[in-house]
């Protein structure tokens, strides 16, 4: 039987506290949880109300504050003890966290700070999610980097290219494939693809790229309304449905299937299927 997701997230929290100088990158923590890197970040934030990166920094800064108040250990030693490679990067992080430089914090004195423990979020309402099986799909797409809300530009360019080249598209239409969690990745580094479904034997040329959506079980949440409110539906899926479902996400990214077009449909009538691939 698959280990419950909540228990695996607690294993990550224990790892963060027990190994402050280890590699606590998002991908490394996803490996500790034995979860796909595509979904670990969203699930962690949904369960605890903060990202894994925020928790790592909070824990490290607490350890540093305790060390500064407890003894005369040098700042260089404290920096290494809490996982920072040098005094300068440690000092920047500490000032952002506590509003004082490490030296000023030490001089200020006072009682040792308390560490706020992570609080598991309420599950939230159980959304209406459909379990289905999708066939493998072949897509032609263009990469987009940056704010997901601006991917419309890539779709516009994609539509122009497909029309100009006479590439046949399947009736299922448009898809967006999203590789990163906006709460865990800097906006400028977010990666996605704007894509259309094409017949499997279609030949394409740059700048178009071929993408494959694997077939298999999928959890589908139907979002009604503007694309700007999609994050609220993702939160429902990852906080309200996934932890209670007994299912586990597959090692492939979420994608969106657009059932109508903002060019011809009022914003509040837009229909988007949020598709979460599931392990078999």
From TrEMBL:
**What are the UniProt keywords, alphabetically?**
DNA-binding, Transcription, Transcription regulation
- According to the entry, every stretch annotated as the HTH araC/xylS-type domain falls at 10-108
**Entry-linked InterPro entries:** AraC_E-bd, GyrI-like, Homeodomain-like_sf, HTH_AraC, HTH_AraC-typ_CS, Reg_factor_effector_dom_sf, SmbC-like, Tscrpt_reg_AraC-type_HTH
**Known PANTHER family for this protein?**
TRANSCRIPTIONAL REGULATOR YGIV-RELATED
Q: What is this protein called?
A: AraC family transcriptional regulator
According to its UniProt entry, this protein's organism is Gemmobacter denitrificans
